[in-house]
Amino acid sequence: MSPFLLLVALSVVVSRCLSKTSDQYSRCAPLPFSCGDFSTNLSYPFSINGTQTGCSHPGFHLSCTIDNLTQLMIYNTSYSVKYVDYVNQIMTLADTAYMNKDHCPIPTSNTSLDFSLFDYTGTDRNVSYYYCSSQAVGVSSLYQLSCDASTGMYDYYFTVGDRVDESCTGLVYFVPIYASFTDRLNVTNARKALMSLKEALREGFDVNWKPGKGWCEGCVGSGGRCGYNSSRPDEPLCFHWDSKIHLSMKQDSE
């Protein structure tokens, strides 16, 4: 092949690569999302209706409920997304079941995260729930859930921390809250403790999301947009209008 024809062929290949990368870069532009008090431009790893293929990570689809709560489903449990911090990859979640102020905060299971996608943060602290036959004598930080309408012999009690109280032989559930609520729950007045518990559960807790950790911030900083390849999900993928920068980002991550 003559040098001229070779140059033409290479130009066509580069042009196609540039066009493909540019198209994906455009398709992955942040999308405006507004639901109740939550309003932001969403991008990787999140998706909403209208997000294009390859622009988000599975497990991060957000929707707006009829109560104007931004919903994220984790293991069939509905969480309200209250805050998103892209720089530190932190989001604030609250179990939707606790968002109703009149709801008695009795759990039906432990709070469970998909630890392939999320981690707790240092701002979180557990509330321990006990199912007891009677309140433990001498345990001042163990409070009965007075809103429980149960007519059986057993009642729910709660306290702050992960310890299991030996005077309660029933099921134990752990639910995360902000550590800043600890002092407000460790009070002598059971009614105040219950009101603080309801408030703490509505405020939620923080989690770090894992997808994109270590590379997505650099991609965005270079002017690119993070993406996802379902056939190679662990490979960093950065779309840019310039294919050379796109290729460079992939090489730097290897």
UniProtKB/TrEMBL annotation:
Transmembrane segments: none annotated. It holds the Pfam family GUB_WAK_bind. Residues 28-95 form the Wall-associated receptor kinase galacturonan-binding domain. It is found in: Membrane. Residues 1-19 form the signal peptide. Coiled coil: none annotated. It comes from the Eukaryota. GO terms for molecular function: polysaccharide binding. It is a single-pass membrane protein. GO terms for cellular component: membrane. Keywords: Glycoprotein, Signal. Residues 175-240 form the Wall-associated receptor kinase C-terminal domain. This is Wall-associated receptor kinase galacturonan-binding domain-containing protein.
